[in-house]
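batch job 7 of whatever, protein = E3 ubiquitin-protein ligase RNF123
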Amino acid sequence: MSSKGGGTALNRHNYRLSSDTDKPRATGMTPSFSTINLYYHLNLSVCADQLVEGRLGPQPVVLDHTSGFEGLLFVDDDLLGVIGHSNFSSIRATTCVYKGKWAYEVLISSQGLMQIGWCTLNCRFNQEEGVGDTPDSYAYDGNRVRKWNVTTTNYGKSWAAGDIVSCLIDLDEGAITFCLNGQSLGTAFTNIKMGPGIAYFPAISLSFKESVAFNFGSRPLRYPFKEMEGYLPLQDPPTTDLMKAHKLLGYIKNVLSTVIDAQVGRLLEKDCAVWRLQGEPTVLITLAHIFNHFAPLMCKVYLVEDVLMNFLLGILEGGGSVDEHPLIQQLLDLFWLLMEDHEVNECLKQLMMSLLRAYRFSPIIPDLGFQIHYLRLTTAILRHEKSRKYLLSNFTFDVLRSVVFFYIKTPLRVKEAGLEELIPTTWWPTHFDKEGKDEREPKDESADERLRRRAYERGCQRLKKRIEVVEELQVQILRLLLNNKDKTTGEASRYIFLNKFRKFLQENASNRGHPTALCPPEYMVCFLHRLIMAVRACWDEDNRKSPSSISSEDAYVPPQLFYNGKVDYFDLQRLGGLLSHLKKTLRDDLASKANIIIDPAEIQATSMDDLDEDEESGAAQRPFGAAAMGGALARPSWLSSPTLGRANRFLSTAAVSLMTPRRPLIQPEKVKVRTLAVEQRTEDDIEGSHGSDGLLLGRPQEEPDQPITEKSLLEIVDGIVMMYNLSVHQQLGKMVVVSDDVHEYAVALKDTEEKIARCPARRPDILEELQKSQKVFAEKLNHLSRRLAWINATIYSKEKMLDVYWLLCVCIRTIEHADNTGSLFAFAPEFYLYVAMNAYSALKNYFSPANSMEELPGYEETLTHLAAILAKHFADLRIVGTDIKDSLMQALASYVCYPQSLRAVERIPEEQRVAMMRNLLAPYEQRPWAQTNWILVRLWRGCGFGYRYTRLPHLLKTKPEDANLPSLQKPCPSLLLQKHMAELLSMDKDMAASFLNSVLNQLNWAFSEFIGMIQEIQQAAERPERNFVDTRQLKVCATCFDLSVSLLRVLEMTVTLVPEIFLDWSRPSAELLLRRLAQVIHTCVGLCVCAAGLESVDHYPILVAVTGILVRILLDGDRQGQETASLALSKQKSTWQQQMRIKVQQSRPSQTNCFFVSQPTSEEDLCPICYAHSISAIFKPCSHKSCKACINQHLMNNKDCFFCKATITGVEDYSKPASS
């Protein structure tokens, strides 16, 4: 292998170490640096490894995947990492010990149920019993904090993800000890069974989805006990190679710090940091001889981690910026010059994996010194262009693993993280209102509280500054990966990173059902924020060079990325449905608006692919490797051993083949171009060349012809939006639980202190218990408040809030630009709308009270733009997905519950407001109407009769964590939107009739369902046998009650705003609507008062809504309207009495006259539908009969006959002939 560097080409194998007889000593070289003496110096310093007695089994030591396991397990490729995949799986190592002192380490990747320790060959495990449950096995369980040997007792401390458990066995004394992060937990077992035939294997039992990684000695133990206590790792360290590597590395450093003075013929010392590759040929030849021995050693993980990594870390120990230490760059130049490709590749791989392991699992100290140290070395290595490109291009440093470098883990143990020293004073809210909300105002604070709060805030600021140092280093790493100027050695780093990043998104988007293949969401959160900072920095740097482009503040993703096929969106749903369907139905629009032609053969091929989509995706999601069951090996998960295991790889079909040339001024010729797969794309495919627009092919006429930024950055921004949708938003919601816990414990502590103050002096026993509780709550709050400070600094800081806000603005602008393309809007991925809604929800609910959304720049304008999107697209016919339409409706319903966002809805253009109200007033049938009705109710709450309450008076007090729910917000009616509703219903008579008819129909259904369910529930409760009411039935019953109340409130709203709909009988449907309204009122009042089983139901919500309707039509209207309403209500009362009479006649015919004076001449003359009115109408052409009220009401919803289902063409008056 020959490599180039500094204009000199050398081949390491052209230089061999010569003996004294065939090569003279180099001129000017002292004997200590002579190549003749290299063998002598090496062999003089090393001795042969000595075999250690007391161990049986092969080297290296790994997990026994052939016969030493029970249950279902996933095992890593290196046979050191394992994930449980059944109830309680067990596995042991391949090597056992019977004499001496031995140790091994286990890295805890998840903190669940596991038992780690030792077992003999005679132990038999199953799905219920594992290590420690049999006589000759011993285990430590940090999840339950116990030790196990058939029986169990308390032992040790609880472990957490990232901890290292050391398992020590002393077969000279018969004792077993465990250590946690180097701290001894004490002797766990003594007098263990020993003697002939007894040997102990390392073993573990773990439950479903728990994962660990073993280190038997293949890498240096994190906490070696050899020097102090004489414990040896199960796998022998390469002692000879270690000594050789140390000496050779010392030789290399000596050579680099030496210069040849040709005039005096001697060597002079110099600073090795100023050495350059273009040096003396003698020095390069000497280094080539040294590397002839050094290079093979650097392919071994133990030597790389123990020798090379520590040597490179030592170079950076002096402090200063990474640029001040060029020696690392020079060493990497030598590696590429003097080592074979496969050697330097393996060396870099092991070096980066060792750095990643060290960074992820190093303990957290107050100044984050370990993390900073490892990140600095990572930055220094990635500054070397050739090394950076190799690491990016190969699986060694793909995005899935590099994400670990951008994660800052949250300490689970405050003491071990040093937060007590960093934040010595803690603080939490102490003033709460009746609902449990924090109502603290600065003027209400006592002097002591103010001092505590300010001291706590100062501590939080100190912590934040130290975390910012780590974050800045992480952003520097990403800036290196996003470098697009390093083209001297091939493709720029940014384009390699972009393809890897897209593959990473594909794996996480396609494997939501395979948690072992997904990047953990807590990693995604940190990665997203660092990537936003790096991308915005690159974007603004490009903007300074090209002032005509837009700044990152106005960033958006152009709509052509969604349909030109240059960006693969995998199987993610589009707003208009399946991509194959859109290509068929919108191909004419693509040709006319974007100059894109769809090949019919391609459409047919895509359709055939859709038929096999499920089968292909199922095959693609199978992990590489098999489960450790029946002797088969399992494919590893990077979660258990992220630095060694490979990420699952998935197959995906190619992106849509839709490309066009740059749009000229004249009508272009439409061409078809084949799209390359993601991993095959080059810089020209992304940025464009030779008259091609790259990613921006197919610019629609509505899109401005203005440069935005480098096209590669646009695709990364698109990926950031996708990443937020995949898991970041869910993780932001999960971390809020710490703040909720602080609030809950603070309320409990305040309540306990008040009880102590009220406790009588004669009850010291109660006082003692209360004081114990007070101490427990205070200790818990001290711990949680410090942990909350860490979370606020890493996840909910002001800077992180600005990142999410920027993402929200990007989505809003992208949706607006895509909306301008007309029908092509259907190609936009659904996740842009989801991210817009979720990002707003996160800003409003997750980042407060530490940060206020009102302080964000352009906050009100952004709310208005988002309101316009929700108002327009919740009923957009271009959107076909049921889930996204429901989400838009729910988001709009939540939006109108808060005063600020409701004012934003009122600020959108009047045309959009009227269109929104028109869509809300569409008939309820055949569409989700509950959320629509809720929106109308929120616009009315605060104006109705007795409708100014936040929650119903009879309900329990709101929990603090529920105080931010939309349904529990204070009333904030919108008079402007009410005005639009009144104008629409008043002017459009047909719409008013259909809307009210649908409301009345749904009210009849909801109230009837509620009555029936509540009676069933109470009957079941009154039975003598013990019955448990189904929780789901209770929820459905409560939902029907809420729907009934909200529908009544909408009727009250309509009666108040547009009374003429019911009272102006010149309108064709007024009489029928008033009669139906009266019918509903009588039904609600009658059933509430008379129906059995409703005694325990609070009648207030129903009756107060009915009262509001009656007040409006009987008292607040004009005289004519009052008389009309009174007449309708009196007639309805008579009708209701007749209906009751018919029911009573059918049940007790002999007593009918006791209740009612008059009765019809014949039952045959009554309407067969309602049995309340005489027959007065006949249908054409079928000649069936009913009363006019029934047929008119029926024809508002259906044109088919009640009886024969024939289409009714007309209705004529009917009167009974006199002869009959």
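notes: The longest helix spans residues 711-758.
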